[in-house]
């Protein structure tokens, strides 16, 4: 068996926004107790930051964030706020130590959402940063719609955030329009230009590229990745954190403290709460992602699973399964029957294969162990 080790230290941190952006999925609501449970499980999984919600919403939302913030979790607990004093006061009221400020910076948002100009955005950001500095809280700045912002405006906003003492700037691909090549170039340049502020990638999945964009940004030097468990979020969702972390942990062999078995458990809880079942073929989480049927593939798996699996199923709490059906070959039939205590010849396996294929086509599914044994016994009798 080939073994791949050579672990390397991980050079980025994980910001989870399941409780904030995840809950902004249309029709999704987490109760107070569900929020507390999810936060605790995220902490056990190993995320570095938890974006717990929006205090200005008040009521149960505000109370849940306060409880999470005072729970003694290892992760930093962050509140999300618009760039105004009322939002900040709501966060300060509950004693949150880490505050995130989101401010629109694209011309589209400034003109058509706020009906303002860039001077207004710039002055608002400076005023808000100075309030936060006076309150001596740790804060980050998020440029909403960074990916569609004029580059000079983007750089000026990051420069203000850095100069005013923000520890992190969130580069938001708010409507998911970037591709990995472009985002790599963008983040690479930002990292070369700004040395005193951490950069976070916050990717949306409108064109199915949130995972790829997040990986590209991290390879370009981004310091944080922001996303959610299962990728739950606005419209088509956010970056699915488990996918990004799996790439770096299993493929690049980064030494990341991230418990995928607990991710699987939390993903199931989220699926139940939100009434959104996990697709059987969803990367990392789907129950069928280590099921093999095609003859060439099952033969390769029998010889060595590394032939057709990028990482062992046990790493994510799953099991391998070799199916017998229309696309099967003789080697997997011999293998399966041997597991069932029956040794057959090459000639018998070829004869069985034709019958098995026809039966699978008729039933439009793979065959169960009993059905395979019954076919064998009918053939040899």
UniProtKB/TrEMBL annotation:
Keywords: Transferase. Gene3D superfamilies: 1.10.238.260, Aldolase class I (3.20.20.70). GO terms for biological process: carboxylic acid metabolic process. Residues 12-264 form the Pyruvate carboxyltransferase domain. It holds the Pfam family HCS_D2. GO terms for molecular function: acyltransferase activity, acyl groups converted into alkyl on transfer. It comes from the Bacteria. InterPro entries: AIPM/Hcit_synth_CS, Aldolase_TIM, LeuA/HCS_post-cat, PYR_CT. PANTHER family: HOMOCITRATE SYNTHASE, ISOPROPYLMALATE_HOMOCITRATE_CITRAMALATE SYNTHASE FAMILY PROTEIN. Belongs to the alpha-IPM synthase/homocitrate synthase family. This is Homoaconitate hydratase. It comes from Candidatus Acididesulfobacter diazotrophicus. The lineage of its organism: Bacteria, Deltaproteobacteria, Candidatus Acidulodesulfobacterales, Candidatus Acididesulfobacter.
